[in-house]
Design brief:
The chain is of the alpha/beta class. The chain has a single domain, classed as 60s Ribosomal Protein L30, Chain: A (2-Layer Sandwich). The protein contains three helices and seven strands; from the N terminus they run H-E-E-E-E-H-E-H-E-E. The two termini are 19 Å apart.
Length: 155
């Protein structure tokens, strides 16, 4: 039976995909003590297709970027479930790091990352409020529009 957090996600029509396998010499997550570090997750949908491809400010809209960040958050959830077996074991979302594939003059990267942040708060309530860094970058793997990494306190 799904836990409370997964039930909240299901009520939003969200089903967790299989976590993405690493494509290089790293692992999807590392747990040390009560901290879970989740590697950057690209904006793939459940079928393995990019939700948004290309650059914000040059063909990818703010709305598409926001949806891509939300997709990254769903992929973070999939990695957390693989690590812990239950999303209800998250005691706190500590930090998200967002990487936005964008033109140098694109200034709305924080609004893009709200797609991930808003979903964390929806899923975890006040425990989902977190510190955050958002950085515009020149390129991401597979020309993904967004990548998000996370740090979680777990039980």
């Amino acid at each position: 039976m799904a836990g409370t957090v997964e039930q909240k996600l299901a009520a939003q029509g969200i089903t967790l995909p299989e976590p993405a396998a690493p494509v290089a010499n790293y692992v999807g997550f590392v747990r040390t003590g009560n901290l879970l570090f989740v590697s950057g997750q690209l904006c793939f949908d459940a079928q393995g297709k990019l939700i948004a491809k290309g650059k914000l400010g040059a063909g990818v809209t703010l709305e598409q970027g926001n949806a891509a960040a939300r997709g990254c958050a769903i992929n973070l959830f999939a990695q957390i479930k693989a690590a812990l077996g239950d999303l209800d074991k998250v005691a706190r979302v500590v930090r998200l790091g967002g990487f936005i594939n964008s033109t140098p003059d694109f200034l709305d990267a924080p609004k893009v990352l709200n797609g991930a942040s808003d979903l964390m708060v929806l899923a975890f309530g006040d425990k989902g409020r977190h510190a955050r860094t958002t950085v515009g970058v020149a390129a991401l793997p597979a020309d993904a529009a967004v990548e998000v990494e996370g740090l979680f306190e777990v039980t």
